[in-house]
Amino acid sequence: TREPEAFAGSHIPGSYSLWLDGMPAFGGWIASHDTPILLIVEGQQALDSALRSLARIGIDSVEGALTTGVQAWREQGLPVERVETTSAADAQQRLARGAKVLDVRDAYEWDEKHIPGALHQFVGELEQNLPQIPKDTELIVHCSVGHRSGLAVSILKRKGFTRAVNMLGGMTAWSKLKLPLERPAPSAG
After folding, report:
1. Longest Cα pair distance anywhere in the chain, in angstroms?
2. How far apart are CA 24 and CA 6, in angstroms?
3. Based on C-alpha coordinates, what's the Rg of the chain?
4. Cβ atoms < 10 Å from Cβ of 119
5. For residue 189, pLDDT beyond 70
6. Is position 25 annotated as part of the catalytic site?
7. What are the contacts of 46-52 at 24+ separation with CB within 8 A?
8. What number of other Cβ atoms are within 10 A of residue 154's Cβ?
9. What residues does 97 pair with on adjacent strands?
10. For the segment 1-37, what is each residue's pLDDT rounded down to a tens digit?
11. What is the distance between the alpha carbons of residues 46 and 61, in angstroms, rounded to a whole number?
């Protein structure tokens, strides 16, 4: 339930990166009413918030929680994983060297503007519709700022994509740097 930067730095292997404020919107995309869930949260207040958010969308199958966060897990000597992150400026350089980009924003956001040559798949449907590219392809994943792309990268890693990278700052940073964008042609009317 931590922010994407914290998840990227250290997380329990196989975890989903679902930030606490995203739980109401995206909890139902990755779990159903009968999915066994273990939550990793930072304290009782975060646990209460996560449980409330999940209950509101009909998910009450939380089997346990680690309320002392990943730090307690690490201190027990248990395994942790990391996720690579990048900036918009670095992502542009990686794309020039052959990396692919995956935009996980909503269709209306994609239709407004997107990075030239990007693949598109909404994060909520990503687990069922993985990119049709080799799993060892360097894949720069982005959304508007980095939360949904953090979730997407955790999904891709669970599915065997070994070089998925979260572009922190997302389309917001890409646009502010005035990097190349494709925009649909205005319709004649």
Report:
1. 64
2. 20
3. 17
4. 16
5. no
6. no
7. 46/1, 46/20, 49/20, 49/23, 50/1, 50/20, 50/23
8. 24
9. none
10. 999 999 999 999 999 999 999 999 999 999 988 899 9
11. 17
Q: Are 143 and 170 in contact (CB under 8 A)?
A: yes
pTM of the model: 0.94
- In the sheet that 100-103 helps form, which strands lie side by side, from edge to edge? 84-86, 164-167, 139-142, 100-103, 119-120
Q: Which two three-digit tokens encode residue 32?
A: 């159903």
Amino acid letter, residue 94: R
**How far is it, in rounded angstroms, from Cα 120 to Cα 34?**
29
Tokens of 90: 């670095």
Burial class (CB in 10 A: 0-12, 13-18, 19+), 129: exposed
Q: What sign does the dihedral 156-157-159-160 (CA atoms) show?
A: positive
Per the residue annotation, which of 18, 143, 155, 168 is the catalytic one? Answer: 143
